Amino acid sequence: MQKRPDIIDFTEIAAEADIAASRHGGRAKCLHRLVRLDLPVPRTVALSFDAVHRIALGEAPNIPALLDRFGPEPLLSVRPSPESADWGGPASILNIGMNAARHAALCDSIGEAAANALYLRFIQAYATHVARLDPDIFEDDEPSAAALRAALDAYTEETDERFPQDPGQQLLEVLRSMARAWEGTTARLLRQARGAPADARLGLVVQAMALGIGPEESGSGVIQFVDGATGKRSIRGRYLPQSQGRDAIAAREGALFLAWDPRGPALEDRCPEIVARLRRYGETCRMNLREELQLEFTIEAGKLWVLDTPRVPRSARAAVRIAVMLADEGIIPREEALRRIEPRAVSELLHSQVDPAGPRQAVAHGIAASPGAATGRLVFGSAAAQASAARGEPCILVRRETTPEDIRGMHAAVGVMTERGGMTSHAAVIARGLGVPCVVGISDMRLNRRDGVLLTADGHKLHEGDIVTLDGTSGQVLLGEVKMLEPALDDAFQALMGWAEAACDIGIRANADTPADAQTARRFGADGIGLCRTEHMFFEADRLTVMHEMIFADRSEDRAAVLERLLPMQRADFTRLFEIMQGLPVCIRLFDPPLHEFLPQSREGVRGLAEALDLPVSDVQRRVQALSEFNPMLGMRGVRLGITVPEIYDMQARAIFEATIEASHNGDPVVPEIMIPLVSAMREVELVKTRIDSLAAAVRAERGVDFDYRLGVMVETPRAALRADDIALHAAFLSFGTNDLTQMTYGLSRDDAGRFMGSYVKQGVFAEDPFHTLDTEGVGELLTIGAERGRKARPGVTLSICGEHGGNAESIAFCRAAGFDYVSCSPFRVPVARLSAAQLALDQQIRAD
Ligand code: PEP
Ligand code: MG
């Protein structure tokens, strides 16, 4: 029979009913499954998305017919049923149908106290959620005859009407208010913030009340079979006698444990058979609904009812363990376990985190540039950081912005925060590489080094030595020490990563500069090193001095003598990297930054350098000035330095080749990859290639050993992308450096953009910070053009990206679609990238099937 369009439809949730999450919402579908599993669910009727929308517009369902489904004089609850439980929804309303007559009858059947409690709860909920009265007026009343009278009087006083007595009217008003609440702007914005689409819809379920307040054993509780923090199997939850809904969880006293527990009384002591049934139901749900669920139950005069089974709320580490356990037990396939984990959640496992359940007082906010959290004493300079580390005191380094001079301070600190900067500024890149938490672009704080204070916008004055906690995951600076969760690189994490590796169809390499980075890259299963920024190898104290001597060498022979001293150091660096990576590819980028970055900026620094080099201060000042540029990032750096001061690249190439021979002694032959930075013209590549080829020939001849190597180009200027065809003629690989490419495509300083990025994103000028999320439209088009032209000139050319975007799901999706060979990111992001890539590959398989 065809349905009449003017009738608002509802469906009783019976085993054979046609209920779908996409039409009735997740809760309705869940209850439908429980009914089919023969669990004792109170009678329930589902109202579809369409029905609820029409109710919001002012239409009404056939209320007498709806009430009729529940027999004479029912007490009902109405609960929200959006498609995903994560999107929230209006509060459930219990005990609809309570009125004076019902109250009197219940006084006789279950006692006055119980009847008062049921009626009062309904009045409180109706007054605040339906009549929208001030909750303060109704909130604090404990159930009693006087409280009930007061609530009824208050209702009349506030509305000039008697509390509605007709159950039909009560139900209709509840349905209407819940339907309308969903369509309001605030509710829409709230759920969108939780990931709901703009057009997310609401279903409602109307359910017969199981009365947890009444005679014999009556009460309600929540039980789950895993620990939501760790994911390990254990019975958790509470039961509260004479209660309804989720009262047991909120109760300050009187709640019982579920299973026997040495800490206090348990429901199992009183009703062992009920707990045994709950355990059985839990297992049935787990096996059939293939998830760890919480059972919300009510005991009504000794009879057990299951009202709902939401997903167990869980931490990131618990999510991983639960997914792996379900897959190990064959309840879900491994592919599904992989798809259930948010890649971002994996990064929470790799670092300490602020416990979300603990208290926190935030005093400043910035860009969350490197995840994890750490507590330490504030220090305002690198020397203080090193001194603090030497005393064994963890410290948080605060700088306006960091420069290469701060590297040692950053190594010594457990966290780094800067007033300026964005996702790809120096502090951010280095901190991510080191795996230490970092917050940059904290524009609501001012560092006053002279007075030794850090002022926050809300008036807090922090001094050097004060203890703070830096939360690099949320971008907050917190006062004092807070409760932390430790990293969890446990068996479950390892298993998940192994499965991800098997599913992944694009290479994931790590940006690694030091042996420690390389070890981390190996530990996280990287397919090789995609970017070794060699300048980071010059920051150790002994090397920095030699570097300074090189910068100050005026004559070519002096420079050659200094480079001669750097050569064995670099050779040892590369040998170690090759050894750690055991035959996996290692891509070494030749020296990139402008030389002046290695020179001190402050007066004390200049004086110290003059002392170390035995030169007059004025000479040092002159040299610093001579090297300084208005736009150093667009100046004498990268290949430009390589062409004008070629001895540096010569030394590096020789060190790479000699290390190649050394590392190949004990294992498979190493094939190093050498990458030229900041190229914008083919001739630059030709010139560098000629020198490197002849150095390779010289080393082969000197050592009498043959070896291979691959020379490639870093595409990080727009011109290099546009001219990728002729550049590729001389390059075995093209690696897109999306940090500089983003900077140059937008004409936006990667070090300063943090100052206004927040405002730009808030006003929708940019959808996201392009230094964080790859701009697939603009920068992406340059990547596509570069890849196409490069491939056309050299069909087998290896393509990759190595900017900070490399670890993000969006850029990985882009690179897979464009047929890139690998992405390269900070070692700590390798697992996140691996999981994202695996999920993308699985999604594609599913679409193809
Ligand atoms: C880049 O520019 O994307 C890059 C990886 O190089 P760096 O961050 O060292 O400039
Ligand atoms: Mg670059």
Q: How is this structure best described in words?
A:
The protein is of the alpha/beta class. Helix content is 45%, strand content 17%. The chain has 35 helices and 30 strands. The protein has an eight-stranded mixed β-sheet. Strands 23-24-25-26-27-28-29-30 form an eight-stranded parallel beta barrel, surrounded by six helices. Strand 29, helix 34 (809-817) and strand 30 form a beta-alpha-beta unit. The chain is elongated, with a radius of gyration of 33 Å. It starts with 9 loop residues before the first strand and ends with a helix. Bound molecules: phosphoenolpyruvate and magnesium ion. Residues 429, 531, 533, 592, 716, 737-740, 802-803 line the site of phosphoenolpyruvate.
Number of helices: 35
Shape: elongated
How far from one another are the termini? 36 Å
The largest sheet has its strands arranged as: 11-21-20-13-14-15-16-12
The share of residues in helices is: 40-55%
Ligand catalogue: phosphoenolpyruvate, magnesium ion
What's the pLDDT, averaged over the residues?
Answer: 92
Total strands: the figure is 30
Radius of gyration from the alpha-carbon trace, in angstroms? 33 Å
Low-confidence stretches: none
Q: What fraction of residues sit in β-strands? A: 15-25%
Class per helix and strand makeup: alpha/beta
Largest sheet: 8 strands, mixed
